[in-house]
Structure formats: C-alpha cells, structure tokens
Amino acid sequence: MFRLALNMLFGDRAKLAMLLCGLAFSALLMAQQTSVFFGIMSWTYTPVVNIRAHVWVSDPMVEQANDAKPMRDTELGRVRSVDGVAWAAPLHTSFLQARMVDGNFKLITLVGIDADTFAGAPAELSQGRIEDLRLPNTVIVDEWGAQLMGKTVKGADGKMHTVALKPGDVFEINDIEARIVGICKVRRAFTGGPFVYSTYDRAKTYTLGARRTLSFMLVEPNAGVTPSELCERIERDTGLKAWTSDTVIWDWSDRSLARNTFWWFWKNTGIPFSFGTAVALGLFVGIAVSGQTFYSFVLENLKYFAAIKAMGASMRVLAGMLVIQAVTAGLIGFGLGAGMAQAIGRVMIEKGMPPFVMFPQILFATLMLTMGISIVSAIIGIIKVSRVDAATVFRG
Amino acid sequence: MSAAHDIAVRTQGVDISFGSGETKVTALQQTEFTARRGELIMLVGPSGCGKTTLLSVIAGTLTPQAGTVEVFGQRLDKMNQEQLTAFRRKHLGFVFQSFNLIPTLSVVENVMVPLLIQGVGHAEARRRSLIILEKVGLKGREDGKPNALSGGQQQRVAIARALVHEPPLLICDEPTSALDKDTGAQIMEMVRELSRSPDRCVVVVTHDFRIFRFADRIAEMEDGRISRVVDDPSTIESQHHG
Ligand SMILES: Nc1ncnc2c1ncn2[C@@H]1O[C@H](COP(=O)(O)OP(=O)(O)OP(=O)(O)O)[C@@H](O)[C@H]1O
Ligand SMILES: [Mg+2]
To answer: Distance (Å, rounded) from C-alpha B93 to C-alpha B60?
Structure first.
C-alpha cells in the first residue's frame, strides 16, 4: 500500500510540481537567507581570515578583531621573550581618510605589516610584488578597494563609469603620498572600506607619528607548542590578551578571535535582530507556502482516502500512507531547495556580493524544518482523514 | 427457505436520523430488511426515501441509533470503529455511482487496493488483479489511467476492485445511473455473472427500472421503511413499461 501511496504522489505531475515548488521555495528561502546572514556576520572577523597569523596578541581590554586599543612598541619585546614564541611581528590597523587626486576623500582601513617578515601580508596579489612595499611611500590596495577608490570618468558612450586604481596611481593619506605598487585579493570586511597595506613603519608616518600604533602582535609558536598553550603562557607572563585564529564560530567559551568577534557583533549590534527578522519572515513565508500546498494536496485526495477507508483500510495504514507521501515530498523539496541555494551561493561567492556562508548546520536546520513542515502537514492530513466519515463515499 | 444460515443481512428496528431539533431528518424508521445468501436483491424507491442510508448501515459505515444489524451472523451495531473497519476489509465489496477510482493510480493498482489493505503482497495482488481484469474484459488496459477509459469501462474496473478479494457481500449504489442504457445492462450482466455464488449476497440500490430484470427479489422503500418485497421482478418491470 505504501508503494501505491508513492504512486498517488507521483501520479499527478502538476500537483506534485506545485507541492515540490512550495517545499523547495521554502527550503531555498531558509537556507539562502540564513547563509547570507552568516555570510555578513562572518565579515566581522575578516581580519582574522586575511591576516593568517596563528596567535594574536592585543591590549587586555580588546574584545574583538575590529577593536584597536594600540599598545607601545616595547610590548613586542616582552612577548618575544615568552617561552615558546618563535617570532612576533607588529600589526597596525586604523581607519583613515585618503585624498584622491581628484580631491575626493575616501575612508580606508590602513594595515601596517612588518617589513622584515611580511607577517599578515595578503595571501594573493593579482598585480605587483609584496617586496615593493619596501620602496618609499608605497602601498598595496585590495581589488574591491581599488574599485571603490577609482575615478569616475565620462566614457566614449557618454555614460559615467568607474576606472579602478592600478599600480602607478597615487593618492594621499594625511598629505603624505601613497603610490600603489600592487593589487591584492582579500576577503571583504564588515566595515566595508578599502584595505590599504603598507609597512608597519610607513603606517606610523601615515598616522602622523601617533604615540601608540601597535594594534596587534602576530605570533608564531615554536614547533610542538599549540596556539592555545602559547596564548595561556603569553597572558600569564605579560598580562596582555592572546587569541587563537581558528574560525569555527559554534563554541561560546574559547579564546578564538574570530568567534569572539562574531558573537561580539551578535550581542552588541542590531544587525542580528534586523537581519534575523528578515530570516524569520522568509521562514514563515516558506512554512506557510509549503504547509498550504501540502494541505491542499491532502484535501484534493481526501475523497480517495475516504474510499480507501470505506474499503477497510485501518487508520494506521492511512496514516502511514500520508507520512510516506509527506516525507518523500519533503526530502525532494529540500534537495531541490538546498541545491538551488547552493547554486545561487556559488554565483554569490564568485561575485563576492552579498557574502554567503552555508555552514553544514544551516543545511541540517533547513532539512529539519522542511521535514517538520511535512510531518505537521501529514499530521493535519491524518486528522482530516480520521474525521472523514466513510459513509461519505456513497454521496456523489 | 429462510432458515438462519440462509440469511446474509438482517436489520431489525433500525432508526437513523440526521441533525436535531427543527432540522432533524429521519432517514430510517424501524426499518426491517432481510437479504439471503446467493441472491441479488435490489432496493428501489423515490429519491430521499433512505436507500443509501440503509446501504451505509449494512456496509458498516454508519451505525444506527436504534435496532440491530446482522451481517453473516455478526452484529455490526455492537462493533467499534476498528472492528467495523476490519469487518469491511474482509466481507465487503463496493461499487459506487461515481466509480470512485483513484485517478493518479493505474487501472490495475486501483484493483489491487482491497488486497493490499488485507496485507497481500504486491506481486500476488497484481497477479490476482490481472486475472479479474481479464474477466471484466479490460486485458491490455491495466497499466493505463482510469480517466483514459469510458464510463462503462471505469465501472468495470470498479466491479473488478469490488470482487478481487472475493467478499461475501457486494454492495452497489446506483451502479448504472451514470451510464447509458446499453452500457448499464452490460454492467448488470457482468455483476450478475461474476458475483453469482451460493454464499454471496449482492445488494443493489437503483432507480433504473430497466435493470430490474437482473434482480432475484426487489425491496421497495418508502419514507425510511421497506414497504413491499417483490419476489418476481418481472411484475414490477411490466408496471413501469405499462
Ligand atoms: N449526512 C446526512 N446529513 C443530513 N441528512 C442526510 C444525510 N444523509 C442523508 N440525509 C437525509 O436522509 C434522507 C435519506 O437520504 P438517502 O441518501 O438515504 O436517500 P436515497 O433514497 O438514497 O435518495 P437518492 O435516491 O436521492 O439517492 C434524505 O432526506 C437525506 O436528505
Ligand atoms: Mg442514494
């Protein structure tokens, strides 16, 4: 009989298509919206991803990766003397105004990296060489930033369009020249502005010799020392705060900088709430759409379930039929929806906009919700069928 | 002749009413009805006299408010829903006016339903269904959908479905009223031929006097009661023709 239940489901292509569309649409909404949400939220810890250091050290008051409470350069010596430290390099980050040749101002994120080790340098340069940063007044800009800071010109077709900055172009930071020698590929950040890389010492000049410029120290542990072991030692010996750089965000109590950054934004900004309402809305619409389509599927088949009931099918058999139909439709709908979400996500990841992070947990939650919708619809169907009077089969 | 073991169906003092207060409709009133093993009995009477209601009572889909219902020695009025369901599964075959075939299933799958709900395996159910489909003249149409068939052919599928599990009681509500005259006669011929068995009882509700001749006896209903039982159907038929 269960085989017939499936044949009943697959027998009406038009109705099945409707049903699967509803389920797939809601699975897509759930998976896609949540992935974009976590994508945006994962931008909060972009520095951890771009800088690629094993251990980060900061002022003890720092709460997350975008939070700079600069320290004195002498702290570097104290950290280097901690047992288990292979090397430690300085890192400067700050938000500054850059003046373009056309007189426009743009907000940038200045990243100063150690000129000896290039610790924290971008992983990939699409143009230029990292060593050219050692030349006077040179910077490297990220691809997206080069676009943002580009100049707007009138094209041959009369329309305005933006020409991205390229190596050789110059702009000014605090009236000091910055000449582009390279373009890098890095992940975009929550704060949105272009990344401008210089050496740590050059960064000091750009910030007009601020007294403290050491935002973070990037530390490499000796062989055999795990990052979290080293973090403990550094904190114990220096009183500074030390962080690991793993980017798994599903754990609350850990010294991961990414995780702490993620949850800091979660707790301290309205973003999770406002975006969360959008996600919840998507979810609600999805549940309503697929619940409704399955319900109408059951209603349209109610007459036939009544006939089967009159012929002597027990409620157990009827319930089994409905559950099998619901679960099958739910699984296929989930597969289609999740597949579409993944396909859309791939395009988004390629374009880099909007951000998209589909954790396995998101897929699992979507599966659970889709199945939940199906099971609830099946239960409603079972109640309907159990109430239907077998005697109705005799009425035209 | 009417010894206890000959009785297939017997209702005594059955009352059924729908609704309450001002809108209360009495459908059956102290209804006495008897059908024997091996016979084809027709229930006839004006619209609204309670034929379908009586049929539902002896089919175990409707429980009377008063009276006793005995089918093959079992008291349906004493059974709960679960027992009634099990009873229908074993003892009953249905043929409906509007066929009630499941459009998303193939012809043979529709016929398999009574066997499958009895727990017969898929292959065996299919085998037995194909045999009976051949008997109703639908060999070659078994894997098509019911909607591709004519009304008469669909009703033949329904007959195959009603008899595939060889139930002792076959119940037909207006089996020919959706069909033209010749097709209706063919269907009744088929019902008669296929259901004939010394132990089986066939109850047919109909308005259609053209098929009266297929009955062994005819019970006439009026206002929720059996008003007359005719042992020779040709007498009623000639009344209508005359
Ligand atoms: N479920 C119900 N609710 C309310 N009234 C009903 C119900 N079923 C039947 N009735 C009423 O009971 C009476 C008998 O109905 P029934 O269907 O048994 O008549 P019938 O002889 O089969 O008529 P027809 O020839 O038109 O099929 C009618 O007055 C009908 O309106
Ligand atoms: Mg009727």
So the answer is: 12
Quick: pLDDT tens for B201-233: 999 999 888 889 999 999 999 999 999 998 887
- What would the two tokens of residue A82 be? 């901690």
Helices (H), A2-118: 2-11, 13-42, 46-51, 75-80
Query: pLDDT tens for residues A291-314?
Result: 787 788 888 888 888 889 999 999
Tokens at A275, concatenated: 């975006």
Does residue B76 belong to the interface with chain A, where contact is any CB pair within 8 Å? no
What's phi and psi for A337, nearest 5 deg?
-65, -45
- In single-letter form, the type of residue at position B88 comes to R
Question: Cα separation of A327 and A29, whole Å?
Answer: 19
Closest partner CB to B117 (pick from A312, A391, A396): A312
- pTM for this entry: 0.78
Contact B109 A1 (CB under 8 A): no
Residue A129 lies in a domain: yes
Q: Residue B239 is inside which H or E element, if any? A: helix B233-241
- Chain segment A111-142, per-residue pLDDT in tens: 999 999 999 999 999 999 999 999 999 999 99
Q: Residue B142 contacts by C-beta under 8 Å, 6 or more apart in sequence?
A: B106, B107, B108, B129, B130, B133
**Calpha distance A25→A334 (Å, rounded):** 9
Residue with tokens 């010799």: A209
Domain that holds residue A375: 2-42+271-395
The alpha carbon of residue A379 is apart from the nearest alpha carbon of chain B, in Å, by: 20
Q: Which atom of ligand 1 approaches the CA of B45 most closely?
A: 21
Are residues A312 and B90, on separate chains, in Cβ contact within 8 Å?
A: yes
**How do beta strands A55-58 and A241-244 pair?**
antiparallel
Query: What's the Cα-to-Cα distance from A369 to each of A17, A87, A372, B103, rounded to whole Å?
Result: 20, 48, 5, 31
Number of domains in chain A: 2
A23 & A153 share domain: no
A313 touching B (Cβ < 8 Å): yes
Could you say which of 3.40.50.300, 3.40.140.10, 3.40.50.800, 3.40.50.20 is the CATH number of the domain covering B4-241?
A: 3.40.50.300
Residue B242 has pLDDT above 50, yes or no: no
Instruction: Note whether residue A74 is domain-resident.
Output: yes
> In B, which residues are within 8 Å of A3 by CB distance?
122
Q: Is the CB of B18 under 6 A from ligand 1?
A: yes
Residue A27 resides in a domain: yes
What ipTM does the predicted assembly reach? 0.89
Question: Is A229 strand, coil or helix?
Answer: helix
Q: Which of A396, A300, A304 is nearest to B146 (CA)?
A: A304
Residue whose pair of structure tokens reads 């340098």 in the numeric block: A121
In a domain, A164, yes or no: yes
